[in-house]
C-alpha cells in the first residue's frame, strides 16, 4: 500500500567527513538504524527498509575494510530516550564513519524553521533529525551520513540488489571512494516541507529504494562524487497523483561549498540543543475533523487483505485529501468514493455488488452532511467483520454514535 509516513515524508542524509588520522586498520563503521516496524500502516514497508539498510552496512564494511558496529531500534524497542542515549554515547574516532538511518512516521510543527522534519517515536514523542545531525557532527567523525525517510508535513519501485559475492573491482572502489575517501557534509530529506513521503509494503519506502538504486549505479562508475550522486538520488518521485521532491545541501569538510545550496535550503549550524519542539501529532486522524476523522477511523479498521493492491499506492494521498477537505461536502464525497473503491468485493457482503451502483450515484450527488453520513454508514455495514481489525466490534458502537451526532 502506498502509505504516507505521516507528517512529513522525509529522508534526511547528512554526510560529514573530517581529516583521517586514525590507523586505517582501526577505522570503524558505526551504524544506528531506527525503524517503526510495528506501525499498522507502514510497518511492513519499514521492515523492508531496515533489512536493506542493514545489508548496505554489511556491504560497505566488506568493501572498505571498516569494522562494523551496528545498533538497531525496531519493534517495541523504539523509545526516544534509548535512541538519544545511543547517539549521545557513541564515541567515533576521527577516521570513523557514522551512519544514522530512520524510517517511520515524521512530522513538523508550525514553529519548526529548519527544512528537515522530526521523527515520530514511541509514546507520542518526537526527535528532530537536525538534532541527530548536529549531535553526531559535533563528535567529528570522518564521514557522517544521517538519513531519515519520513513525511515532512505539519500535521512500485523495483528492489535494489546491494550486495554480491562477486562484487566487481569498480564497485568496490566506488564504495571506497564514497565511504572511505570522500570528505563532505550532506543533509537531504525525502520530501520538501508540505509533502508526504511514499512507502509500499511490498516494495519499501520510495526514497530509500531510489537512494539505494542510484547508489548502486554510482559505485559502478569511476571516481563517484557525493555531489553528483546526491543530485541523481534526489530526483522527484511520482506515484499515482502524488509527488515528492527530495532536497539536499552539501559542503566539503572544511565548510566551503561544493555546490551552492538553494537560498531557501540553508545548511544547519552545529548545536547540541535537545529539540522536540512539540509532541508528535497522531498519524491518523488528529488533524482531520468530524466526518473526515470518522471516515479515516473506519478505513484504518479495514485489514490489508481486504483492500485492493492499488489502495496501497494511493492511501497516503487519500489521507491528505481527507484532512484538507475539512467540512467541504464535495471533497468529502470524493474521498468517500475513493475509500470504497479501495475495498475488495471479497471483503464486503455479497449483496454490495448489486447495491454499489446506486450507492455511487448517491455519493456523487450528495449535497449535505446527512446524505454523507447515511452513505458512510451503508459502506460500514457492507464490510465483513472478518475484513476488519478485531477491535472494531468493541469500538463500533462508539463510532456509530459519533457519526450520528455529526
Report what the structure shows.
By secondary structure, the protein is of the alpha/beta class. The protein folds into 2 domains: 2-251, Rossmann fold; 290-404, no CATH class. Helices cover 37% and strands 16% of the residues.
Q: What are the main properties of this structure?
A:
alpha/beta; 3-stranded antiparallel sheet; 406 residues; 4-stranded parallel sheet; 16% strand; Rossmann fold; 37% helix; 12 helices; 2 domains
The CATH topology label of the largest domain is Rossmann fold
Q: What form results from the Cα inertia axes?
A: elongated
Strands side by side in the biggest sheet:
3-2-4-8
Instruction: Name the CATH architecture of the largest domain.
Output: 3-Layer(aba) Sandwich
Low-confidence stretches: 7-25, 155-167, 257-268, 276-287
Briefly say what this structure is.
The chain has 406 residues and is an alpha/beta fold. It has helices at 43-64, 80-89, 129-137, 169-181, 206-218, 226-233, 290-301, 315-325, 329-341, 352-365, 369-382, 392-404, and strands spanning 2-4, 28-35, 67-73, 97-103, 106-107, 118-121, 125-128, 143-149, 185-189, 198-200, 204-205, 237-239, 242-244, 247-251.
SSE topology sketch:
Layout: E1 2-4, E2 28-35, H1 43-64, E3 67-73, H2 80-89, E4 97-103, E5 106-107, E6 118-121, E7 125-128, H3 129-137, E8 143-149, H4 169-181, E9 185-189, E10 198-200, E11 204-205, H5 206-218, H6 226-233, E12 237-239, E13 242-244, E14 247-251, H7 290-301, H8 315-325, H9 329-341, H10 352-365, H11 369-382, H12 392-404
Parallel strand pairs: 2-3, 2-4, 4-8
Antiparallel strand pairs: 1-10, 5-6, 6-7, 9-14, 10-11, 12-13
Helix pairs in contact: 7-8, 7-12, 8-9, 9-11, 10-11
